[in-house]
């Protein structure tokens, strides 16, 4: 770190003393005088900066009040406070007492608007229409208010009536709220032993599903086969017997076994695919 020379150190000390003296002087002024100073002095003026700082300090409770409305959202309070202070500074810089009203009345919508803009533009993890984003925030606020008023969780109909929208839009807004904050697949699972992350708890395609569907389709038409062909197929594919072993057990030749297997499989294939009716097979038999 660069070491300051004695003259530079003294100059900075005088600067700090001067800034503190300005703060003490401005602290005696009311809000109207400070706002007039903010409006008339150039942006780089130390006195203007001190006036803004004093006004921000005086209206800190207003910032806290606006942020408290969003205490149930998954967003750090400190981050929301920073966003709210930006809204307050914008209000201080743009407020003109000549148009009447108070700074508090003017600043509140500015602060709330800045917070909503933060949620709308920077916190949604996937693209959601602006109308749905705003409705999702309204649904959250209305849910809390109606729950206190009704004594139970409000239904979609209650929310739709209060917000002047449809139940379908309320449901859509609820779904959109799920896209507000995503969770990494590597996120640890609390209370789940043996699982390192969320990805390990997600299911995957079961390769046996297709096999089960095929077996079900075959089972539907299995009774339509003659008993001997049912027995031959069972011995071949479930008993894992060779055609020679099947022929020896049934007292027929291997060629006959091969022909019966081909005939039965062809029938089942055609029935499963809907190529021909069973009556045609029965007549051929």
Per-chain topology:
Layout: H1 6-26, H2 31-40, H3 46-58, H4 60-68, H5 77-94, H6 103-123, H7 130-150, H8 156-163, H9 167-177, H10 208-221, H11 227-238, H12 243-250, H13 254-273, H14 278-284
Helix pairs in contact: 1-3, 2-3, 4-5, 4-6, 5-6, 7-8, 7-9, 8-9, 11-13, 12-13
Question: Care to describe what's here?
Answer:
The chain is an all-alpha fold and 285 residues long. Among the domains are: 126-180, Arc Repressor Mutant, subunit A, CATH 1.10.10; 208-284, Arc Repressor Mutant, subunit A (Orthogonal Bundle), CATH 1.10.10.10. 68% of the residues lie in helices and 0% in strands. Helix 1 packs across helix 3 (46-58). Mean pLDDT is 81; it is low at 278-285.
CATH architecture grouping of one domain: Orthogonal Bundle
Number of strands: 0
* Main beta-sheet annotation: none
CATH homologous superfamily title of one domain:
Winged helix-like DNA-binding domain superfamily/Winged helix DNA-binding domain
User: What portion of residues belong to β-strands?
Assistant: under 5%
Look at the structure and give the CATH class of one domain. Mainly Alpha
Summing up helix and strand content along with how strands pair, one would put the structural category as mainly alpha
Which sequence of SSEs, written as H and E, runs from N to C?
Answer: HHHHHHHHHHHHHH
Q: How many helical stretches? A: 14
The poorly predicted ranges are 278-285
Distance between the termini: 100 Å
Shape: rod-shaped
Helical proportion, percent range: 55-70%
Mean residue pLDDT: 81
| Fold-level CATH name of one domain | Arc Repressor Mutant, subunit A
Rg computed from alpha carbons, rounded to a whole number of angstroms = 39 Å
